[in-house]
């Protein structure tokens, strides 16, 4: 396992290199990439061999501003033309609970789970979340191992081998191996 000294975007390429190398050894040959703007997804596209499948998960539309999608349309087209998938969906570890917190205060179960995962790193939390989202969209199977990558605000700094689960069975998800994450200390 690689421990980066600091979280953040500067670890993106190395995280993807680690993820791609591991994914090449897995039968699924799949990496999941959290990407808000498309920047990290484009780097994944540039470095992944042709037989690797990239599933990119974006922020839900309206995350920053109502009805606005932050992901670059051109990069989405490029990924899809090369046979990869781009998923935009409700975030599995916040969903409507974020609205309850903002409107009424307090903290609700999904966000408690999310914050517990953040004790590892933001990126580990994101890796788990996007695995649930991809499983719910049918883009990964619950019986296969995949490599999921997340980061801290932007870029990528964590890569995790995960056995996914559907969100209705989220505690069946397994964190099989943390390949890299920031030291967080
Ligand atoms: C579904 C989803 C949830 C995310 N949740 C968080 C989060 O809780 N904390 C965080 O620091 N970053 C979060 N991110 C950001 C990602 O970890 C990653 O840094 C970012 O999407 C990379 O985008 P870029 O390719 O535009 O740099 C999330 C991204 C997505 C797509």
Would you list the SSEs in sequence order as H and E? Answer: EHEHEHEHHHEEE
Low-confidence runs (pLDDT<50, min 5 residues)?
A: none
Helix count equals 6
Which architecture does the CATH hierarchy give at level 2? 3-Layer(aba) Sandwich
The level-1 CATH class: Alpha Beta
- Gap from first CA to last CA: 16 Å
The overall strand count is 7
Largest sheet: 7 strands, mixed
From the alpha carbons, calculate the radius of gyration and give it in angstroms: 15 Å
**Biggest sheet: strands side by side, in what order?**
1-7-6-5-2-3-4
CATH fold descriptor = Pyruvate Kinase, Chain: A, domain 1
Strand content: 15-25%
| Ligands and ions found | flavin mononucleotide
Per CATH, the superfamily is: Pyruvate kinase, C-terminal domain
For the residues shown, what is the average pLDDT? 97
SSE class: alpha/beta
Helix content: 25-40%
| Approximate shape | globular
Number of domains: 1
Can you describe what's shown?
With 185 residues, the protein is an alpha/beta fold. It has a single domain (2-182), classed as Pyruvate kinase, C-terminal domain (Pyruvate Kinase, Chain: A, domain 1). The chain contains 6 helices and 7 strands, in the order βαβαβαβαααβββ. Strands 1-7-6-5-2-3-4 form a 7-stranded mixed beta sheet, sandwiched between helices. β3 (53-57), α3 (73-81) and β4 form a beta-alpha-beta unit. α1 crosses α2. The two termini are 16 Å apart. The model has no long low-confidence stretch (mean pLDDT 97). The structure holds flavin mononucleotide.
């Amino acid at each position: 396992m690689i421990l980066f000294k600091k979280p953040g975007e500067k670890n993106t390429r190395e995280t993807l290199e680690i993820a791609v190398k591991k994914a090449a050894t897995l039968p699924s040959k799949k990496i999941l990439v959290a990407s808000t703007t498309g920047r990290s997804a484009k780097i994944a596209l540039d470095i992944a061999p042709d037989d690797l499948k990239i599933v990119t998960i974006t922020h839900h539309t309206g995350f920053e501003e109502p009805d606005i999608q932050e992901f670059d349309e051109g990069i989405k087209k490029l990924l899809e033309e090369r046979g990869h998938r781009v998923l935009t969906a409700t975030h599995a570890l916040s969903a409507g609970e974020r609205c309850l917190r903002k409107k009424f205060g307090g903290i609700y179960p999904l966000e408690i789970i999310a914050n517990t995962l953040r004790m590892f790193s933001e990126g580990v939390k994101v890796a788990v979340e996007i695995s649930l989202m991809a499983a719910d969209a049918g883009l990964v199977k619950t019986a296969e191992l995949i490599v999921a990558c997340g980061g801290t605000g932007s870029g990528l700094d964590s890569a995790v081998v995960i056995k996914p689960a559907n969100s209705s069975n989220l505690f069946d998800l397994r964190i099989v191996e943390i390949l890299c994450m920031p030291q967080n200390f």
